[in-house]
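FAQ: What does the model actually see?

It sees only this:
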Amino acid sequence: MKVLILGGSRFLGKAMVEEGLKRGLDITLFNRGNNKEAFSEVEQLIGDRDGDVSQLKNRNWDVVMDTCGFAPHQINKIAAVLRDNIEHYTYISSISVYKDWIPLKIAEDYYLQSMPQDQLKEIEEGRISPYEYYGALKALCEAEAEKHWPGRVLHIRAGQLVGPFDYTDRLPYWVQRVAEGGNIMVPGRPDRPIQLIDVKDIATWVFDMVEKRKAGTFNITGPDYELTMEKLLSKCKAVTNSNARFVWTDEKFILDHNIQPWSEMPLWIPEHFPLVGETEPWKGSFCISIEKAVDAGLSFRSLEDTIYDVYQWEKARKDTERKAGISREREEELLKTWIQKER
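And it is asked to produce this:
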């Protein structure tokens, strides 16, 4: 099987390439060439889906795996050179396509985000930033791919991806913080649910599906049992052999002290307070339905293995800047305030 991976040099893309090579498949990468040394043994085509895609012309692949499509014009540009030269297209989308995460067990038929055409045009022309419209753009990308390859697209609505090379630093923040030990401020209740999925699990399942040319739309997160924040952190503590003590902190206290959910407190979205611009709390944030994907064969590595891999990667990292989490100084300040308040 000849596979073209759009991206393939970072995080999920790396996991996809590694899985394809493990299966002995013919892998080609198309990206901007910023990390060519990552897979020197595979063919690498240099280009930019916002610019020059000429290296894809007059080429044929059995399947394309799109790990980085961000806006519909990028899908359209790829389709212009590949539409009739491939059999199957996998698009890595996101559970952010849903209009909200208010109800529990959101399935693939839940309402999607959208945006007016004039706004989309402004984004495509670079006049406004696309990042705050991530979910709507991903939904439009799904529709664009389906338009070009009807009935031949595997849409992966991914939840929180984890594993080595995770540049979001959400799970890495907690693994590293637990490894350091001591009192650790944790938002919300210990038994609040959490969902995440190892990129190796996505890669395995996607290749299984693609080899059978399966199409359709699937929520992909995990695990297939109820994981709580307490269980996650306890696994981190065991894997890192830490002396950590978890201080479970009231959501209102954290919000009152202007700590931002998700960014400054990774893997936390308030259960009892609406986000800015919302009328209800997003209680379904970590209760997305994955029944359809599990029925189609999605399986999961052990949580211990995932945390171990992240911990080993964390220990080898040379960069000190992190994209998520609060400083130790700020955490200590808040812990003192919380402990005094609870006395």
